[in-house]
Amino acid sequence: QVQLVESGGGLVQAGGSLRLSCAASGSILSINSMGWYRQAPGKQRELVATITSGGITNYADSVRGRFTISRDNAKNTVYLQLNSLKPEDTAVYFCNVDRVMYGLGRWQYNLWGQGTQVTVSS
């Protein structure tokens, strides 16, 4: 089966930057859309950004212009560059894959990583 492993979270001051990575592992044949979501304490999980296999991106209004999502299809990895961070960006960030083909042509749907903490101090 396919698993997602995130890295790159941490503590940063307001105005700083971080880069998150999420690598999908397994006998992967193809991945559809990849994305990042976040969940702050006491709040629901929300969309941050997504990117299709063809590179079409979508961003939440709250991060557009500050965050950049990208992917390396050869490495089955999605990245999130976080710039101009604000305290309200503090959350656990989760990687998501909506659909992946692996092995002998099996599909997995709606995969989630374990999450990585991003904390922005004021």
Task: Provide keyphrases for this structure.
122 residues, mainly beta, eight-stranded mixed sheet, single chain
Summed up:
The chain has no helices and twelve strands. By secondary structure, the protein is an all-beta fold.
Word description of this protein:
With 122 residues, the chain is mainly β. It contains no helices and twelve strands. It has strands at residues 3-7, 10-13, 18-25, 28-31, 34-39, 46-51, 57-59, 67-72, 77-82, 91-102, 106-112, 116-121. Strands 2, 4, 5, 6, 7, 10, 11 and 12 form an eight-stranded mixed β-sheet that branches. The protein has a four-stranded antiparallel β-sheet with strand order 1-3-9-8, with no helix packed on it. The model has no long low-confidence stretch (mean pLDDT 97).
Element layout with pairings:
Elements: E1 3-7, E2 10-13, E3 18-25, E4 28-31, E5 34-39, E6 46-51, E7 57-59, E8 67-72, E9 77-82, E10 91-102, E11 106-112, E12 116-121
Parallel strand pairs: 2-12
Antiparallel strand pairs: 1-3, 3-9, 4-10, 5-6, 5-10, 6-7, 8-9, 10-11, 10-12
Query: Kindly state the mean pLDDT as a whole number?
Result: 97
What's the SSE pattern?
Answer: EEEEEEEEEEEE
Distance between the termini: 41 Å
Largest sheet: 8 strands, mixed
How large is the radius of gyration? 14 Å
Number of strands: 12
The helix/strand class is mainly beta
Q: What is the molecular shape? A: elongated
